[in-house]
C-alpha cells in the first residue's frame, strides 16, 4: 500500500483520528494538507509530516472551498480526502436542547461533508482518487441522549452512499468509516463511571485506538480497495453487532 506522489486533505487532522490518518498517509508517501480549526496544532503536525496546513472552519462553505484551492495551489493536484472533522455537541432531552448548539453540530458534522465533497470532487475527478467520510456507530444505530450527533452521522452515511453511486461511473470511490468509541480528545473529561459503562458496550472489552481506525481508512483510500465504494466500514469492537 503506497501513496507516493499522491496528495490528500485531512480535515480535523491536528488530533485524534485525523492525526492518525494524516500520519499514516504521510508515512506511505503522501503529501498531506492538515486542515483544522486549531491552526497552531495543525501547523505543528504538518511540519512534522512534511505537509502543509490551513485553518478551516468546516461548517463554513467558503472555508471548504479555500481548503481545496489551497491544496491545488500548494501541490497542484488532489487525489484523496478524509472528511473527518467533528464535534460532540449538545446532548440530553430533545425538548430541552439548545437550538444554536444543535445547528452548530449539524454544520460541523453534517453540512461540512457536503461542502467538502462539493469542492473536492471536481479535483479528484481529474486524478481518479478516493474519499473517506468519517461517520460513527451512531450513523448506524442511535443513542437517545445524542440526537443531534446521531442525526448528523446518519446523514453522512447517506450522503456517502449517494455520492458513491453518482460518481462510481466516473472513477471516484467514496466510502464511510464508522468508529465506535475511540480514545481521542472527544472523550477527554469523561468521568470514570461513564467511561467504564462505555467500555462495557464493546464486546472486545476496550475502546478502539485512532490508529486502528486510520488503518481501515488507509485501506479504503488505497488501490487495494479498488472495487470498494459506497460501503460502510465499522470499526467498533462489535458494539453494533449485539
Task: Provide a short characterization of the protein structure.
The chain is of the alpha/beta class.
Description:
- The chain is α/β, with parallel strands linked by helices.
- Helices cover 45% and strands 14% of the residues.
- It has seven helices and seven strands, in the order βαβαβαβαβαβααβ.
- Strand 1 (7-11), helix 1 (16-27) and strand 2 (31-36) form a beta-alpha-beta unit.
- Helix 4 (99-127) runs parallel beside helix 5.
- The longest helix has 29 residues, at 99-127.
- The radius of gyration is 17 Å and the shape is globular.
- The two termini are 33 Å apart.
Overview features:
globular, 242 residues, alpha/beta, 45% helix
- Residues in helix, %: 40-55%
Strand arrangement across the biggest beta sheet: 3-2-1-4-5-6-7
* Largest sheet report: 7 strands, parallel
The total count of strands amounts to 7
SSE pattern: EHEHEHEHEHEHHE
Radius of gyration: 17 Å
State the end-to-end distance.
Answer: 33 Å
Multimeric state of these chains? single chain
Mean pLDDT: 96
Unreliable spans: none
